[in-house]
Amino acid sequence: MRLPRTLAGMGKTLSWKQATWNAARVGAVLGAGTYIGGKTGDPVYGAAVASAIILGKAALKPARKLTTDQFISIRNGNIASQQRMTDNMVRDINTAIPDPARRVAVSEALDRGSPEGLAPKERQVYGYVRQFLDNIGKEATDAEVIKGMRANYISYIVERDPTMTLEQESGILRRIFESGEGGSSGSPNTRFGKRGKYETFDEINSALKGSGLRLKTQDVGEIVGLYTKSMRTAIENKILLDNLKQAKSPAGESYIVRQDKNNNIPQGYEKLNHPQMTGYGVHPDLVDSLKVVLNNSDPNVVTRGLHGLAMAVKRVQVFGSLFHAKSLMEVYINAMGKDFYSTKTGVNMEPINAALKMYREGGLGDTLDLGIKNGLSMQIPLDVSQSIIGDIGKAVNNITPRLVGKELKIGTAVTDKIDWVNGKLDKLTWDYLHAGIKGAVFLKEFETLTLRNAEAHAANPKKVPLKSREQIAREVATYANDLTGGLNWFNIAADAKTQLGRQLGMFFAGPEGQRFAQMLAFAPDWAVSTLRAGFKAFGESDRTLRGLWKPENATDLYRRYALRSTLYWITLLNGINYMTSGHSIFENKDPTRLQFEDGTSMQAGKHTFEAVHAATDPVRFAYNKLGFAPKMLVDRMSGKSGYGDTAPKFETFVGHAAQAALPFTVNTAMQPGLTPSQRITRPVASAIGFPIYGTSPEQKATIKIERAATQERRRKIRKDWGGKE
User: Fold this and answer.
1) Share of the chain residues as helix, strand and coil, in percent rounded to the nearest 5
2) What is the largest CA-CA distance in the chain?
């Protein structure tokens, strides 16, 4: 009796349209995997990998949805919303006072409580910052994250030596700030919660001398940015904890409990390492998600060193490269449809400019604010460390006096020039294209889904519920994040379909997981976003094929993006391939590249085809995405400079590692067998995001001659020194 009832229930919930679409979806995956896998000589392998990626989640335990995730998402959204306002304020300060030395002068004036000696614009900034600091200080005091603020206050932001542990730093800070008169009457909720006993920058600099600590900055713009972020985080943490203390689990248990007089907490509860969690235990259902936002993490010296190495090397490797900028333009073309084209200028940049105008001049309550509060991440991806090169220069400056006996700023003399170039590229890539394209995509598709949902609801209100603006914003924010990079890792974890996915997501959303990801992979945020953009096109949608031209949900948007990418592939790229090679792109050894008659090839759409590469050859894909240290470890074990049977063996590991750390544009010029002209054209092609791979028959012959000549020179040297031939 149970089986007929089950089948009847399935018949009510699974329509013939859904069944047909699911069959088509699986068939498309298997077909694509079989075809592309066949290009590498193993169609069965390609089909198996593709189907496992799409269908594997069916065998895993489904994730439990927790209402507490909503509290944390609200907290994260409020912080991100306020961060937008802070970033715009700092930008305005820097625009009003472009000279860094004069911004320091404003800080000093705020410290002494008098604008005397400041120019008119500097006085305006002085008054604005004074009022802003007073307001946020009052808000923090009212929220009980600090006990009070002194008048004429501007924060002293202290940073530690990279080799110093958090415990050592805390001890020095206690000795400097809490000994003698003045003491501390602040709160541990934020590092800015202490009322300092030092009245001027000169006094604090004198106190820090010889301690291993130093002021991070005296620039009023930087101080406002760092101070506001810390205070806003502490305030939102307090609001979050107050809400969680009132909430109950489905079993009626408290999510947060206070320890008893013996410092004990109920069995199964866990304590978190965070000042605002002192004396409290956390319910096991809440631990993984709360650790993401409320768990101090102090990595050891080795971890900090490896993380610093990873971030520094990747910053060097992309030096002078417009790869990310070109990839973002790929996204813009595929995502915006006809809106990207202009009859006057070719590419229509107006949607980008309009989005940036709203982002920089708008505020609380506008459409972008709604997106940001629901997961739209407008900040630079975590893969990019804009300060790491400068930090290395400062570290070299600090070490130099110990070696030569006098102060020489040789480190920053070099790194400042590198940072100048990086700064110009960052402004184009991240400040303009990344923020502008992500904002443009969100604004366009938020309007689209809002309109389509309203139309569908009006036509069939019983079947199609009317979504809230927040629901639509969250869907579109996830879509825009996946396309452009800069993920909201917590929301990804909270939306996971399986329990394993949730656990992994929460780990990588936290500070420890982020550090691990940055050490393990070259660009984990960028890699995951490209994979999600590709594979989420195989999600479920009631709209089936109609969603391609009238999308009602995020899955429809992903599918339309994939369809446009495919159309560009089989039309534009295929046509160009006929011109460069004389045959269809699908006859190439790698159909995602343009092939030339001499056997070399160009990756014209690397960002677009990442999901294809992952499905067809996941091992090679994973190797290519490794960070510097893990990749060098793999190479050291294999003795080769690359993956696969055809990868060449390196002569010395040190030389190989040194070359691998060079900018990608430089590395392309160092390939063996290149002509003088190719040593110019290949770096240029790589720099603008169109890398060229492979060697022509003439190059292979040149390489063979060069290797033979090298072996002969070595043989002669050994013979001259009396060694064996």
Assistant:
1) 65, 5, 30
2) 92
d(CA 160, CA 214): 7
Question: How many angstroms separate the CA atoms of 385 and 724, rounded?
Answer: 50
Q: Is 309 exposed, middle or buried (0-12, 13-18, 19+ CB in 10 A)?
A: middle
Q: What is the pTM of this model?
A: 0.84
Instruction: Pick the closest to residue 221 from 113, 114, 88 (CA basis).
Output: 88
What residue type is assigned to position 534 of the chain? G
Q: How far apart are CA 401 and CA 405, in angstroms?
A: 5
What confidence tens digit (pLDDT) does each residue in 213-233 have? 777 788 999 999 988 888 898
Work out whether the CA dihedral 484, 485, 488, 489 comes out positive or negative: positive
| 344: its two tokens | 């006057």
Helix (H, G, I), strand (E, B) or coil at 300: coil
Beta-sheet pairing, 157-160 with 594-595: unpaired
Angle between helices 435-459 and 469-484 (to 10 degrees): 140
Sketch the domain layout of the chain as residue ranges: 2-59, 91-237, 248-293, 299-587, 594-720
- CA-to-CA distance for 563 and 446, rounded, in angstroms? 20
- Radius of gyration for the alpha carbons in the chain, expressed in angstroms and rounded: 29
Q: Return the closest-CA partner of residue 438 out of 386, 370, 527, 376.
A: 376
* Total length of the chain: 725
Give per-residue pLDDT as tens, 162-193.
555 556 556 655 665 554 333 333 344 554 55
